[in-house]
Amino acid sequence: MVKKIAVLPGDGIGPEVTEAAVHILKAVAKNTNQQFEFHYGNIGGVAIDEEGDPFPSSTEELCKSSDAVLLGAVGGPKWDQNEPALRPEKGLLAMRKNLGLFANLRPVKAYGPLLDSSPLKREVVEDVDVLIMRELTGGIYFGKHEREQVNGEWQALDTLTYSESEITRIAKKAFEAAKLRDQRVVSVDKANVLESSRLWREVVDRMKTDYPDITVEHMLVDNAAMQLIHGPSQFDVILTENMFGDILSDEASMLTGSLGLLPSASLGDQGVGLFEPIHGSAPDISGQNIANPLAAIASAAMLLKYGFEMEDEAKAIDDAILKALEAGYRTKDIATEQGAVSTTTEMTEAVIKALR
């Protein structure tokens, strides 16, 4: 059966790394007789320029008619002065909301050949294998954002709201993921200050009875941020709300040495999933063929695993990434001073060679 994949390259280095992921998926199809169709659409800044909307209706229709969505990156200084409704990031938020993608999965696993690329000591990061489960369509990012003048000065208001059902569905995803891993969940909140976090903690505690084999620990977000640096291997699955997850996942990405290594998946209860690297559009290096494609390639592996239930094919990609790194291939962001620097194309070809 042919699988239809919507490809949204986006801005900056998005087209380069996304094309690398497409090449990998084509190699998988050739090796396994799978059939993939790739259909391209606009999102972010390029969509604003060409269609006047960061998430055009044509792109939404393409996504909803596809079996999975592969995305590059959005944003850049070109659009920084746009009004809020015409910012590239609005396209990403609208897509998550309109496609019902409430669960963001961000795996953070240290690659053996790159342990010395981490800013932390080798012994601190060598056993890191964390899955961050971030709620994606609620919280402060989707609350009201208002300004008003009070006593002659501007006052800004951003509201943070969560319902029991929103917390329940993301917690379920975390518990189900933990069943397939080391059966440990750390739920991160700020329950000593925020009422939304107190509700979050109550719902998670209530759900523990349905998962008696899962060990659950609550941790305040400031402590979690510290523990990710002090002892990251203590974590298995981290469950948290939208803004905390955004911050902690970027922090955790540096355990591996580069944002250019980490993929993500955004899923709902059903329907199409979104797969993208967690790095930004990096406009300062776009078009130079030096961007690290490994996060996008690993996102393609997650697409196969979570989107198409092709676990063997997904593992083959992950293994090929490791083999390419073991063979000494390094893009600029992970290269040592003594080592040769690989281009985006060379790194992609190295992974394809390893797949063969």
TrEMBL record:
NAD(+) binds at residues 76-89, 280-292. Residues 4-351 form the Isopropylmalate dehydrogenase-like domain. Catalyzes the oxidation of 3-carboxy-2-hydroxy-4-methylpentanoate (3-isopropylmalate) to 3-carboxy-4-methyl-2-oxopentanoate. The product decarboxylates to 4-methyl-2 oxopentanoate. Signal peptide: none annotated. Mg(2+) binds at D222, D246, D250. The keyword Ribosomal protein does not apply. It is found in: Cytoplasm. Substrate binds at R96, R106, R134, D222. Pathway: Amino-acid biosynthesis; L-leucine biosynthesis; L-leucine from 3-methyl-2-oxobutanoate: step 3/4. This is 3-isopropylmalate dehydrogenase. The gene is leuB. Its cofactor is Mn(2+); Mg(2+). The record marks Y141, K190 as: Important for catalysis. It comes from Geomicrobium sediminis. InterPro entries: IsoCit/isopropylmalate_DH_CS, IsoPropMal-DH-like_dom, Isopropylmalate_DH. Belongs to the isocitrate and isopropylmalate dehydrogenases family. LeuB type 1 subfamily. Homodimer. Gene3D superfamilies: Isopropylmalate Dehydrogenase. It comes from the Bacteria.
